[in-house]
Amino acid sequence: MMKELSKSILLLLLVISSLVQSFFLIYRLPGSDSVVKSADKYIKTDNMGAEENVEHLIFPEQMIIHLGENKHTIFYPEMTFYNLIYSRLQSRTFEGFQRKSVHDINWDQLSKDHAGIELKFGSGIPVTLLQKVMQIVPDPLFQAESINRIWIYSNHTENKVHAYFFSSLGDVVYEATKADLTVQDVQQHVDFGAQWTPYTKVSDSYYVPEKPIQLVESDMSIKSYTTEQMQQNLFFDPSITRNIREKDGSEIYTDSKRSLQVRQEQKWMSYTDPAAAPTGESDPSKDVLAAIDFVNQHGGWSGVYRLMLTQSSEDKSSITFQQYYFTYPILDTPSFRYGVMKLEMQQGTVSSYERSLIYVDHEGGERRQAIKLPSGDLLRKLISQKANDAEIDNLYPAYMPSLVKDRLKLTPVWALKLKDGSVRIIAY
Questions:
Q1: What letter does residue 391 receive in the DSSP assignment?
Q2: What's the DSSP call for residue 330?
Q3: For strand 304-313 and strand 268-272, is the pairing parallel, antiparallel, or unpaired?
Q4: Which H or E run includes 284?
Q5: Is the alpha carbon torsion for 313, 282, 285, 320 positive or negative?
Q6: 3-class state of residue 372 by DSSP
Q7: Sign of the CA dihedral with 88 first, then 94, 99, and 104 last
C-alpha cells in the first residue's frame, strides 16, 4: 500500500515538473515563437515615462477674475486660488442649455461691470471630454460642441448667476439655465483675487499686469530616452529596420512602412505611420483618448501636460500636449524643440507622433533663481514693438527652453500669441 502511494506521489511530481518546464519553454525562453502578439499592438518599453489619464490633462490655461469696476486679475494653473476655485467649480452641476448668438451680449462691457470668473482653455475641448472634469448634464443641443471658454458671473440686480459656454467656432454661446451656484458663491470666489496682481484689459483679447510677475529661472540636470528604446517601442520588429543618415545630421529608421526620424542635436523624434491611417470621419473625443493611450504606451509623460486640440479636417485631428513647469507652459521654439508632444490622429489611429527625448533627471540637481518679468507701461511698449501691428490673441508668462552644457535651462519670458496662432517671445 505504501509502495503504491509512493509511486502515485512520484508520478504526480513528474507531471507537475513537466508542466512547469513546458510553461518556461513556451513562454519564457528568449525568441520563442509560441507567444502570439497581435499585429496591431506595440511593444511597451520598460522604464520610460509615467502613464496619465485624460482627467489630469484638461484644465484652463488661464483663470481670469473680473472684480467689477473694470478691475481684473489672473490666476494660472497650480496657484493656490486657481486650484481652490477650479476644484469647487468642478463639483457644481450645469444643465438646461440654451443656444444663443455670441453677438447678443456685449462681453467687453460685461467684463468691466460684473464680478465673474472666466476660464480660458486655449483651444476647443469637446463637451464629451469636458464632462470628464466638470459636472455637465448631457444635452443633445450641446453635446456635439467643442468649448474654449467658460464665463460665470453674478448679476446682483437679478440675484442670479449666469454660466456661459463658448463654442470654439466663435459664433455661438450656450447658457446653462440651471447652474448649481449662488451669487454668494461667485462673489466669494471673486474675492480671492481682490488683493492679487492688478491687470488692465487691452482691447478685447488680452490683459497686462500693472505689477511685475515673478517666476523662477531654472537650470536642471537631464537624461534622454535612447534611439534604441524608441525603435523597440514603435516598430513591430525592430530587427528589420534599416538606418538612413541625412545630410542635416538626423537619422531615419524605417521598416519600409513606418519611419522614425531622430534629430540628435536636439534630441527630438518624429514618427510617422501613413499606412495605419484609415479613411472616414474622425471623432475628436475618441482621437484624444486614443492619443493619450498611445503616449502612455510609447514614451509616457515626463511632467505635467495640458491638452490642446485643433480639428484640421473632417478626417484628421491634430492634438498637442503642452508641457508645464509648475505654473507656466514651456514653449516649443524653432531653435530648440521641447515642451510639447504632437500627434496626428485619424479615426483613433496615430499617423504621426512628435516629442522630445529629453526628460528631467530629478536626482541630478536643480539650480533656481527668481526673475521678475516687466509690467505696466514698459510691457505695453515691448508688446507694441514685438507685435508690429499684428492682431494679438493673448499674453501670458512662459518658459523658453535651451540646452546649456548638457543641462536644460528654462528662462522666464512673456509669450505673445497672435490671432494667426503664431507666438512671439518678449525676452527681457
A1: P
A2: B
A3: unpaired
A4: helix 284-297
A5: negative
A6: strand
A7: negative
Confidence of residue 62 (pLDDT cuts 50, 70, 90): very high
Q: How far apart are CA 287 and CA 283, in angstroms?
A: 6
Structure confidence at residue 47 as a pLDDT band (50, 70, 90):
low
Closest CA to 44 of 294, 243, 227: 294
pLDDT digits (tens, 9 = 90+) for 260-312: 999 988 899 999 998 766 667 778 999 999 999 999 999 999 999 999 987 66
Pick the CATH number of 223-358 from 3.40.50.300, 3.90.1720.10, 3.30.310.160, 1.10.3720.10: 3.30.310.160
In the numeric block, which cell numbers belong to residue 323? 508641457
Cβ(377)–Cβ(189) under 8 Å? no
The residue behind cell 501670458 is: 396
Instruction: Report pLDDT digits (tens) over 66-122.
Output: 999 999 999 999 999 999 999 999 999 999 999 999 999 999 999 999 999 999 998
- State the cell numbers at 181: 451656484
Q: Where are the domains of the chain?
A: 56-196, 214-218+363-426, 223-358
Burial state string for 180-215 with b = 16 or more CB within 10 A and e = fewer than 16: ebebebbeebbebbeebbbbebeeeebbbbeeebeb
Query: What predicted TM-score, i.e. pTM, was given to this entire model?
Result: 0.86
Instruction: Give CA separation, 116 vs 66, 93, 405, in Å.
Output: 5, 17, 47
The answer to whether the CB of 221 falls within 8 A of the CB of 371 is no
Kindly report, residue by residue over 362-414, the tens digit of the pLDDT: 888 889 999 999 999 999 999 999 999 899 999 999 999 999 888 999 999 99
Place of cell 468649448: 147
Q: How many angstroms separate the Cα of 264 from the Cα of each of 268, 337, 356, 400?
A: 7, 11, 10, 20
- Looking at the DSSP bridge assignments, the partners of residue 242 are 254
Q: Return the ∠ at Cα 324 (arms to 365 and 300), rounded to 5°.
A: 80
**At which residue does the C-alpha cell 514698459 appear?**
378
Q: Give dist(CA 187, CA 184) in Å, integer.
A: 5
Which residue is it, cell 505635467?
A: 304
Joined together, the cell numbers standing for residue 56 give: 489630469
Q: Does residue 318 contact residue 300 with C-beta atoms inside 8 Å?
A: no
Q: How far apart are CA 36 and CA 29, in angstroms?
A: 14
